[in-house]
Please model this.
Amino acid sequence: MNPDGPAEPTRDGPAASTFSRLHPRLQRAVVDRLGWRSLRPVQDQAAAAILDGHNAVVLAPTAGGKTEAALFPVLSRLLEEPTTRPGALYIAPIKALLNNQEERLGQYAEMVGLRAFKWHGDTTQSERRQWLRDPGELILITPESLEVLLVSPKVPSAALFEQLRFVVVDEVHAFAGTDRGAHLASVIERLAALTGCDLLRVGLSATVGNPADILGWLAGSSKRQGRVVDPSGPPPRRDVLVAMPGAVGVIARDATRLARGQKSLCFAESRSMTEMIATQMAGGGVDVLVHHSSVSKEERARAEEQFARGRNTCIVCTSTLELGIDVGDLDRVIQVNSPRSVASFLQRIGRTGRREGRPQSMVFLCEAAMDALQAAAVLRLVQRGWVESVPQPQRMWHVLVHQLLAWTLQFESLEIEKAWAVLRHVHAFRGFADAEVEALVAHLVETRMFDRVSTRLVLGTEAERRFGRRNFMELYSVFSSPQVFAVRTASGRELGVLDEDFVEQLFENMSSFLLGGSAWSVIRIDRSDRVVLVQPAPYGVKPGWGGHAPILLSQQLAEEMRAILVDAPEMPFLHDTARTAIGGLRDELGSTLTNAQGITISPDEIRWHTFAGGRINQTLRLALAILGDWKVVADNLGVSIRGVGLSVDALTKLLPTLADPTWWVDARTELHERLPGYRVSKFQHLLPVEAQREIVAEMLLDVEGTRAWVAGRSGAPALPSRG
Model:
């Protein structure tokens, strides 16, 4: 079933300059308009790959010149082979990144006589109509807006894209392995089929552990050769410190002190925490701004603009500023607690150190000893040059359903053989057999998502009922739009959004809450228009935003946390507060860290300190509940077990079974039946029950990793310590 993949990628080394291979008009513009005397190594090597007609993944740090590395050779090719319609797509994961890149990419296109246009949800209808009448050569777009262009009856998509030749995907690591990435890859394959062209594909990233895999993911049906462009130099100089102030109020005070007189980003791991930190930093002599996904786009834009002009300024943010949005040169990044991955750390600290001779700089301010331990483990992995690999799922049922529906909307009917001939090239669908796809379609016909008309399928009555509102807008994206209320002042200023569940806890003229780093009191709640009208308040409670999947740390990060406790390595980046806290954890766990299985017992519970990461521990939780009929609770560092007949000996006797591959095969159905009812996708409920369970299992479980982990723990536990 799997199509032939692209040629084996090669990793470029130093090469002769390719500047002379660029179109003469582009050469003159680079020298005369930009004042550049040479290309950076990453730009030189990427240009060579793209001009040779190869797909590429281009790696370089933030502000390392990746955008030009891709765009210059693409513009050069468009000058050599002119088009009268869009010849290239620049795709970004978020609208803010498109807004941030619009001026720069527009300048590069304009200086060689070409045109760029930004199309996303905030682009006005009049701007879209004008562009469709006379489209330019380069489109800046998100995957969801690209889907709109394909399925909208108002857009002649076949004619619009008939000259398309190039696709550039920025922040490709943010797509690969995700629902939106599978959606994007599907749309690219549909475009390739529509144009009949082997589209040249380029992915840009600052941090990825498996670039060759990402190249294969991006290539899809392409038969072009592929290159990984990674002109790695020596690692940048970094100035990092891990401290543990403790309480949030003390963290906010220390953050204010660090930010005073400088330009800083302060990252937190939740929207609620950003609001708490920003509010408590206010009045400390620093201009404090807030940036997260529930703050309105107007407020986020205001924060970005004010930050660009300021000096004594700090934006408290979530991962919304982790991607490649350019907020200018920073003095320091402040991190509240620890990021969840090495990749996030590298993205965030890469915002700093852009001035000649200045190191990258980050200070961790942690609430608890375990937060400091996690931060230290991240830094130890960075020192060894390790970064997470992007996952490569191959059985994304819910995205396949979405694409079958979108295909039907685009062409007004579905011939499954024709659609599957295109979509089977998408990496996220390569694990499906033809018979499984046929069974899925039969299920969708049975549930009236599709109706049969002769040899074709059309959208059924149930699909019309579920998705037909507002011209099938829900089919434009693979992700769910949460049920939210807009928050607005009496003057009409848009502040952001609140989750419906949180709004239900509010009372008019009584309740107050934090949003955008300020406190607001509720004047009126308009449930018909879903608006909360507010006015400034002296204080407020932190809002809650729900709907999150559990935070699952990687096995490598969890194991590094254990290694720090066992080996007590020298870590000069620790402040005394963090060093003392980690030492306290080491003393608390004692011999548990060195005995064979890491088990402690108390009168009514056994704690198995696995340090195996979230997915392995979640898998152990379900397996132990099946085998021992016990109550098991899992986290990233272990499992806690209670129940009748529980003992160290009874637990030990289960290890051979847990190491046996055949048991896991036989137990698959029961494992899936015990999974929690997480809503992974808005298309999940359209699937057969077992497929629904499978996608939750893909998110939560790691059966093979768990079996291998248990197999590596031979022998019975040593005498456990008593908690």
Notes: The chain has five domains: 10-229, 238-383, 397-475, 484-536, 595-722. The two ends are 54 Å apart (CA to CA). The CA atoms of residues 159 and 317 lie 42 Å apart. Residues 1-16, 715-723 have pLDDT under 50 and may be disordered.
